[in-house]
Structures are given as C-alpha cells and as structure tokens.
Amino acid sequence: MARLSEWYGRLLDGLVFVACLLLLVMTVMIGADVVSRNVGGGGVAVSNELSEDILYLMTLLVAPWLLRQGQHIRVDIVLRALPVRVAWALEWAGDIVGFLCCIYFVWYGLVITRASYSAGSINIKTLVTPEWWTLAPLPVGFALLGIEFIFRMYRLSTTEIGLRDDAVSAA
C-alpha cells in the first residue's frame, strides 16, 4: 500500500504541474487580452470564457494534492481541544464522510456527463462546445479525491490513536 501511495503522490504532483501550466497559459492569455485592448486590437475574445474553464479544471486537478498535503480547508482547532480518542474518531468520521461525498459526486458527474452527451447539449458563449467537455472532468476529479481519502484512512489506520499530523497545514 505504501508503494501505491507513493505512486499516487507522484501522479498528483504531475497533475499539479499541469495545473501550473494551465495557470501560466491563463496568465499569458489575460495579459495578451489586456495589451490587445489597450493598443486597439479589440482583445482576445475567448479569454474570459477560457479563464473560467481553466480555473474550474485547475481546481479539480489540484484538490487531491491539497488534501494529501493537508493544505485543504480544514478547521482542526476543535479536534485539538478534544480528548485524543474522540478527535481520532472524528478524523475517521471526516474521512468516511468525505469519501462518501466523493462517491456521490463521481456518480452524479457520470450521470450528468452522460445525459449531456446523449442529449447533444452545447455551451453557446464566445466558443460553441459540447457541454459534456466541461462536465467530464468532474467525476475524474472526485474519483481522485476519493482515492486520496482511501489513502488517508489507510494512514490513519496504521498510526497510533491520536491527531493526525500528516494532514494539517498548521499544528
């Protein structure tokens, strides 16, 4: 399991790298849009729409890595104030609920993506694209989050009862 976790961590590192490249592309595109508008070129017509899509995709790519690093949104001040066994049980409860939510969003993402594909739905903005292109990353992103929750539960099961230090950004 440790080897799988290490491999998965490298996969998440690769996805973060892709998200960083997307951020670079978005930054250059917005910069080009601003420069173009200021020199009378009219701007880059698709920059707003592509920026929205890139932010959405970046969020899905980076979320599992943030969860693994303990840099996701987490308020653990209450856990630190509770007895160790209670806090440990709540860690389990949080991971189980998180995993179940991921399963739901994978299922829901698949259902809406398939429905959009079957219906031939399209997004009509500046670009005209099939709607399922936007929906398809959702189940993938939540599947990756679900896998990370499994690894979190594994790490929690193999350590002493107590607060986890591997999943918090500030101790």
Topology:
Blueprint: H1 2-38, H2 47-69, H3 77-81, H4 84-119, E1 122-124, E2 128-130, H5 131-135, H6 137-157
Antiparallel strand pairs: 1-2
Helix pairs in contact: 1-2, 2-6, 4-6
Explain what you see:
The protein has one domain. Helices cover 74% and strands 4% of the residues. The protein has 6 helices and 2 strands; from the N terminus they run H-H-H-H-E-E-H-H. The radius of gyration is 20 Å and the shape is elongated.
Number of structurally distinct domains: 1
Number of helices: 6
Rg (C-alpha, Å) = 20 Å
* SS-based class: mainly alpha
Low-pLDDT stretches are none
Number of strands: 2
Q: Taking strands numbered 1, 2, ... along the chain, how are they ordered across the largest sheet?
A: 1-2
**How large is the share of residues in beta strands?**
under 5%
Q: Classify the helix fraction into a percent range.
A: over 70%
Task: Indicate the mean pLDDT.
Answer: 91
Q: What is the N-to-C order of secondary-structure elements (H for helix, E for strand)? A: HHHHEEHH
CA-to-CA gap between the ends? 26 Å
User: Could you say which overall geometry the principal axes of the C-alpha atoms support?
Assistant: elongated
Largest sheet: 2 strands, antiparallel
